[in-house]
Amino acid sequence: MSETHLPALGAVGSPASLESAAVIDGLSGRDGTNRSRSGHCQLAADTDREAVLAWLARYAGSPNTLANSRREAERLLLWALAERGKPLSSLTHEDLLLYQHFLADPQPAERWVMAPGRKLARGHPAWRPFAGPLSPASVRQAMVIVNSMLSWLVQAGYLAGNPLSLSRHRRSAAPPRVVRFLEDDLWSEVRSAIATLPKATEREQATYWRARWLFSLLYLCGLRISEVVGNTMGGFFSRTDPKTAKLRWWLHINGKGDKDRLVPATDELMLELTSYRHWLGLSPLPQYEEPSPLLFPVWWQAPSRGAIQWPVQMTRAAAHAVVKDIFEIASQRLRAKGPEHHARADKLRAASSHWLRHTMGSRLADGVDLRHIRDTFGHASLTTTGIYLHTEDDARHAAINGRHRLGWDSLAS
């Protein structure tokens, strides 16, 4: 294998150069020393690459998980071939200990590390799997993904055993506090940045309403960016609280791990929803199972007559770009106030959509039952009997609706 060029794994279902290189070198994994010989393999895969692609195919509906899993699988396969001269299905416990150390300092750097500031396609001769050494937390996460892959391949009957299962598994202490969230003053800067966006033209107004609605969803619902672009307006529904006879709105979300959960749609969120839909030229509330996206592109407006052709969902990258643009505007506004604000401005520039999820959790933890936060964020699997706990759900809705507000009306438009 070339010292200066490493083949890439390729997307699920597409041809890639890794398989060809492995076959040429006799390292396809067909005769791997850790291949299961039981005759009960549940995969059609005959090579390591095919087996890994079968594992990755499980994440086709979760783009972020797929990208992370693909990256770690690719790195391990390439390392096994280039550094150990063996296929994935021949790796031993000792090999994987060496790989763990390798992740913290990928050497030789000219083979493994991309030149600073460069972002190249995998087919480019100068492409490399790493941007630099991984932090301890990133090394741990990489090994978690590798362990998950190897365990699945054992369960599928492709591998005889998981070499990582021999490692000591020490439960790491939880971080003492969440640091990637926005304090009150920074969150105020973000809201002000949105509220003061230009609105002279129709496109500027569309940009304003999209940003306002997106940040409302992220902050008031704690949604992941992938959940914003992966769900529809048809997820909104209402039911009556039997104790108070109050109509409560909910948002059904299909989220990470293909898990469903109910998120309280607070009174304030529903006002934002009706305002956003009014701008789009839609009815105030979504219709039953309406297939419209939760977030519309800025160019879309409802037709004055005739059937509505809904736009396709925005991509995760496009929604992420909207969030980063707002954080950049807020950062620049704060930086313009003087040098004493530069450090805080830098924090805003570094923020992402997930910071708003942490911000919501931080706010709610001060006075709201942690069980309500757990269920709203989907941190724990719901038991089968959870579908009958409407009283618990109504208490959760009331708690969050009463304590968690965004406050657009307090800002100058």
UniProtKB/TrEMBL annotation:
Coiled coil: none annotated. InterPro entries: CB, DNA_brk_join_enz, Integrase-like_cat_sf, Integrase_catalytic, Integrase_recombinase_N, Tyrosine_recombinase_XerCD. Keywords: DNA integration, DNA recombination, DNA-binding. Transmembrane segments: none annotated. Gene3D superfamilies: 1.10.150.130, Intergrase catalytic core (1.10.443.10). Residues 46-154 form the Core-binding (CB) domain. It comes from the Bacteria. Residues 177-402 form the Tyr recombinase domain. It holds the Pfam family Phage_integrase. Belongs to the 'phage' integrase family. This is Tyrosine-type recombinase/integrase.
